[in-house]
Write a structure and sequence with these properties.
By secondary structure, the protein is α/β, with parallel strands linked by helices. It is 24% helix and 20% strand. Strands 8-7-6-5-4-3-16 form a 7-stranded mixed sheet, with no helix packed on it. It has a 7-stranded mixed sheet with strand order 9-10-11-12-13-14-15, with helices on one face. Strand 7, helix 5 and strand 8 form a beta-alpha-beta unit. The termini are far apart.
């Protein structure tokens, strides 16, 4: 057999195998229902089968840019991961949520919120690697979580910001699905959850500007500047941030977002906020429109009229080329310059909100190595 023909056959087999794997494996999610598709087509943020940002947003996926990223990734590691596994603070739940609002950071953008007697998990990515296969994406910095999924109490809600692997984890949802009363998600994401065995009656989908209610807690699906996608098609589901208004506290969760005027608009409509959970990490000049640098994160906190800022989207995975501690160090400098109150809890350390609350502010990461 001709050598080139043999190579071509092998390549075809590989391509077909990868295509079928992506199309058939449930980890890549499901498709929106017909009802959801109708709502998508009515959305002002949906055009030609894709969701779009309020502001022109693009990332260069050309070969030159791709090769430059690969080149930089192959360079000697300059502190992009901790030298040893991070220690975490064990989380132990009580039979009842605390009497005052509290939030516990599980690393990256996974946060357990206890508010008005309810337990709400934001983007519960509790898996080992932020990718469809463990050999890609790098493993979590810590050997363990503050508590394992089977140790978590029943959850009143899970709130999702978008469907990327570092925010929506297949295995985590499989383990959590029977613990959660209601899932609040942006348009299109329900299709993933339904394929993974979550009953449609327990999922509520929202477009930007739409509001939900969790036993008196007001949930508003607010804009973000980002993108979505788990397989071959991108931007087929919506991405968002969330305004969460409870009696005990008002909280803003940024999800993933580049900087833009939407933050100030959110502040005008839904601020002020007692606490902002603000993206602060995994940035690079080559994708500056979809992830903020720390100085922009502090600015966004001020735009939404936040009181205390908790930097997130760092401390668990390496998804960019900067040193792993750079996001929080730069955020500290900028927050101090602007007079912003910054809280920097350890992973698993609970932050209490309310009158007289003391906000953790140690530089624990400096001794983590």
């Amino acid at each position: 057999m001709n050598v080139w023909l043999a190579i071509a056959i092998v390549l075809i087999i590989v391509v077909v195998t990868v295509y079928l794997y992506i199309r058939l494996h449930p980890i890549f999610g499901g498709r929106p229902s017909e009802e959801t598709r109708k709502r998508m087509n009515q959305s002002g943020h949906y055009s030609k089968g894709k969701f779009i940002n309020l502001l022109e947003t693009s990332v260069d996926h050309g070969l030159k840019n791709t090769f430059s990223i690969l080149r930089d990734m192959l360079k000697k590691d300059v502190g992009r991961r901790p030298a040893k596994p991070l220690k975490v603070v064990p989380y132990t739940s009580s039979s009842n949520p605390p009497e005052t609002a509290a939030v516990t950071w599980f690393g990256h953008s996974a946060l357990l919120l206890e508010l008005d007697g309810k337990r709400i998990f934001l983007d519960p990515m509790l898996g080992r690697a932020p990718s469809p296969t463990p050999i890609v994406g790098g493993k979590r910095y810590s050997d363990r979580l503050p508590c394992e999924i089977d140790e978590l109490p029943e959850l009143d809600a899970v709130i999702l910001s978008h469907d990327h692997y570092d925010h929506l984890d297949f295995v985590s949802i499989l383990k959590l699905r029977d613990k959660v009363k209601t899932f609040f998600v942006p348009l299109g994401v329900a299709g993933h959850l339904e394929r993974w065995g979550v009953h449609p009656g327990r999922i509520r989908e929202y477009d930007w500007g739409e509001e939900g209610d969790l036993d008196g807690i007001r949930l508003v699906c607010t804009p973000a500047r980002h993108f979505s996608g788990r397989s071959l098609s991108g931007n087929s589901t919506l991405w968002c941030s969330w305004a969460i208004h409870g009696r005990e506290a008002r909280i803003f969760y940024s999800g993933d977002s580049g900087y833009g005027p939407h933050f100030a608009e959110i502040g005008r409509k839904y601020g002020p906020f007692d606490l902002t959970l603000m993206e602060c990490g995994q940035y690079d000049p080559r994708w500056a429109s979809i992830h903020m640098v720390p100085e922009e994160s502090v600015q966004a906190h001020e735009d939404v009229r936040g009181h205390v800022m908790l930097p997130i989207h760092w401390g668990a995975f390496t998804l960019a080329l900067h040193p792993w501690t750079e996001p929080v160090e730069r955020a500290r400098v900028e927050a101090a310059r602007r007079g912003v109150v910054l809280t920097t809890p350890r992973i698993g350390e609970t932050v209490r909100l309310g009158p007289g609350a003391e906000y953790p502010s140690s530089t624990w990461w400096r001794t983590a190595d």
